[in-house]
Every structure is written in structure tokens, then in C-alpha cells.
Write a structure and sequence with these properties.
Shape: elongated
Structural class: alpha+beta
Distance between the termini: 18 Å
Number of strands: 4
Strand order of the largest sheet: 1-2-3-4
Largest sheet: 4 strands, antiparallel
């Protein structure tokens, strides 16, 4: 199976469990992979036979910027749901990272994989 990917999609949102995190917008990074058969799009050279990664990115950014989750796990689950439900992906692997969330680490995050069957 082929994969389409988006790496280092960056935006800011309100996310976190501490009081100070509820008062500031923090940077989040998103990496994702979608399982897809690219043979039809390769043959036709048409966007109508594949996933439009610009549209996927735009919808994820809109959702993230408007979200107000406490946990990155919750936000990651919501994003995976958008990709599976709205874009009809069969499988997605999504990484959501908060850079600078811990002083002693460059970043923290979660990686989830979801499919239509799960």
C-alpha cells in the first residue's frame, strides 16, 4: 500500500492541563501518513483520484486552532477522526508534538494509528 504524508504541519492552540497553559497558545506539530493506493492518480494525473493534502492540512489547522483540549491524546484522536470520517481514509498514523512542554526535553507527544475498522 502506498502512503501520502504531511510532515511538520505547525500551528498554535490552547492545550494543556495546567492553569498557565489555558492562558496561552502553544505551538503544536503534526505529522501524518495516510494509506492509499496511488495507482489511479498516477495513471490519470488527476487530483480527483487521490487525497488533496492541501485540503486535509487546511481542515486540520482549522480544527486545531479552534480546539481547547486538555490532552494531546484527545486532540490527536479528534484529528484522526477527521481524516477517517471526512476524507474517507482507510488508515492514518498521526504524530502530535508539543515542543518545549518540558524544560528537560525538546518535545513531548503522542503517536496514534487508526483505521476504519477500529
Amino acid at each position: 500500500m502506498d502512503k501520502i504524508f504531511i510532515r511538520n504541519l505547525v500551528t498554535e492552540t490552547t492545550i494543556g492541563i495546567y492553569d498557565w497553559e489555558r492562558d496561552v497558545r502553544q505551538k503544536v506539530l503534526i505529522d501524518l501518513e495516510l494509506a492509499v493506493d496511488t495507482s489511479a492518480s498516477a495513471l490519470t494525473d488527476s487530483i480527483s483520484h487521490t487525497f488533496d493534502y492541501a485540503e486535509i492540512s487546511q481542515q486540520l489547522l482549522i480544527h486545531i486552532e479552534a480546539s481547547n483540549c486538555f490532552l494531546i491524546e484527545t486532540l490527536a484522536e479528534e484529528l484522526a477522526g477527521i481524516i477517517i470520517d471526512q476524507f474517507k481514509a482507510d488508515w492514518v498514523k498521526l504524530s502530535l508534538t508539543k515542543p518545549g512542554a518540558l524544560d528537560a526535553a525538546s518535545e513531548v507527544g503522542v503517536v496514534i494509528e487508526r483505521s476504519r475498522s477500529s
